[in-house]
Amino acid sequence: MDCLNNKLSIICLLLLLLLLLVLPYPSATLPLCTDLRAPVKPKKPLTFCPYDGKACCDSSQDSQLRQRFDALNISDSACASAVKSILCATCDQFSADLFKVQSGPRTIPVLCNSTTDGGAPSKSQGQAVDNFCSNVWDVCQNVSIPDSPFAPSLHRKTAVPESSNPYKLTDLWPSKTEFCNAFGGVSGEDSVCFDGKQVSVLDNEELMPPKGMCLEKIGKGSYLNMAPHPDGSNRAFFSDQPGKVWLATIPEQDSGAALGLDESSPFVDLTDEVYLDSIFGMMGLAFHPDFARNGRFFASYNCDKIKSPGCTGRCACNSDVDCDPSQIVSPDGTPPCKDYVVVSEFSANGSSSSTAEKGNPSEVRRIFTMGIPFGGDHGGQILFGPEDGYLYLMMGDGGGKSDQYNFAQNKKSLLGKIMRLDVNNMPSEKTIADLNLWGNYSIPSDNPFSEDKQLQPEIWAMGLRNPWRCSFDSERPSYFVCGDIGQDQYEEVDLITKGGNYGWRMLEGPILFQNQTTTPNITLVNSNDTILPVAGYNHSDVNKKEGSAAISGGYFYRSTTDPCSYGSYFYGDLYAKNIWAALENPKNSGNFTTTSIPFSCAADSPLPCSSVPNSPLPALSYIFSFGEDNRKDLFILTMSGVYRVVRPSRCNYTCSKENVAASTPHQPPPPAASSSNTGSYQLLNLLLPLCFVVFVLCRLDTVGSA
């Protein structure tokens, strides 16, 4: 029998093909400009580049592009039209992706090319075969272009031979093939290319919210922070508000096991450093991306300068921001800047940090210290950027009612901001003094202050009230999302971009903010290019009696455990009565729709779940934070314990994509796993040996038949 005709072989091949179809593909980046800022609607219409709506150019840049185009003095109209569109691509709202800014600067966007190096056809963003790169060559190959933007010296950083005439494409490039190999590319799920027109998001697949979220309770403790172990294993760190950190082993899905955590043996105990109160404590925990080798980890916490002699530093209310501490009167009589936000560095014990089970509570260095004027709205989360390796610090507006000093909109204040700090290159004492820094860190050279000298150099984004729980999408790191707690009316979810202004105190979410001490200024709101939230909810939606609410930002769901939730951004409210799924439709557009979804606890939960009286909801008590492990499974950290999202069928939720029969415990991820599609590739790893056995049997059968 011919092995290829063997039924088992055919079944095996079909399984592999099916798996390839269900593997999640990485998605393209969101609309971003080449300076990594969000596109905005120009205040004046662009007269040269045909871009309406949001764009990455203002009228001044539009005029500069016109001058550059005129200087090229292109005589051929077809070539001139193509070159004009290419120059104007810098105004496209997807210009960061078109110009591949993460890979290094380039003068020409990726031109859509209908074939790859191997000759395989590709698709443009409209899903039709496109050959714009070839068209550019055809219409411009024999046209003289002084100071040509297509010069190899600009693309390869090499000099053009002196004997050549750098005008025509045929003088610069040997053939169309080499030209398009240099400038051409394809558009797909993970990238876009330029076809001569404004990039549009054309995706007919509409994401649908899951029918519900099924949870299991795996831990009893009450934690604020969860951080997966940087070695990629099935371990994670948990910390509580008083200041203890534990290293825990996370059980496999469907194992029936609880969280492996010994509360009597913390990884490190920082309670002597932390000032604990209802709104104060240890707010953030972050492990250096290279922790497995260098053992560095960081804690963000509060200290009280009256109770702790080591709690010293500058007050955020000072003359630089037109604030006089002596004029601040707290409702409870607390003196201004009694409480501080601190970020400290610590180290793990042992020669091998990846196997260390204890950290050293002695501070290595003080990264950041700042006194907050009032007793609240201090944020405090810290996390490392997955691509740039910088430390992000989320800071609230300082707690004053209605932010009466307007700290969040003051570019000289660090209150109401997201900061981006370099903790890998430590400054000298002279540098700290010269730059007036707030601790031991350096300033990344591409922070927004490089283009806006009015900004404090630490600032990455501004206009936030009290950011509570931010995360980077593990598949699309440019999607940096934060929940921001409102004051009276609205809780918001913000898509954070470089230099973005999220409106507070001019806006509360999408609503003009007004109270006794401030008056909304519509002109100021428009002139500051404020960025509206992508999702959120009104206080009255969750608590109609008191109108009280507090958002907890979450994560994009990237686990394969619940395939019907894949791609949804989940977030919740402190009072644990609502969890929302925000879905981006169309994908990669930055436009989200939200749905409040039901959630319940599995009957076979490793730890029993209690229920809210007269309600089907599990008694989570309060939702403090969300978490994600190295498998990309989602966790909810609550006052009543640690919950994990599990297969929807365990709670009788319908999910057509779930294969219940194949739901078996999966293996722990290997160390230093970097793929965000771990679950699918683990299934692939299981199928490949199976198929190998099948083919061996086929071979034996063939030999026996012979």
TrEMBL record:
This protein's UniProt keywords: Cell membrane, Glycoprotein, Lipoprotein, Membrane, Oxidoreductase, PQQ, Signal
Location relative to the cell: Cell membrane
Domain of life where this protein originates: Eukaryota
Protein's name in the database: OLC1v1005460C1
GO molecular function, one term: oxidoreductase activity
Co-factor(s): pyrroloquinoline quinone
Entry keyword annotation includes Ribonucleoprotein: no
CC per GO annotation: plasma membrane
Residues in the signal sequence: 1-29
Similarity field: Belongs to the PQQ oxidoreductase GdhB family.
Pfam family, one: GSDH
The keyword Metal-binding appears for this protein: no
Native species: Oldenlandia corymbosa var. corymbosa
Domain Glucose/Sorbosone dehydrogenase: 226-580
Topology in the lipid bilayer: Lipid-anchor
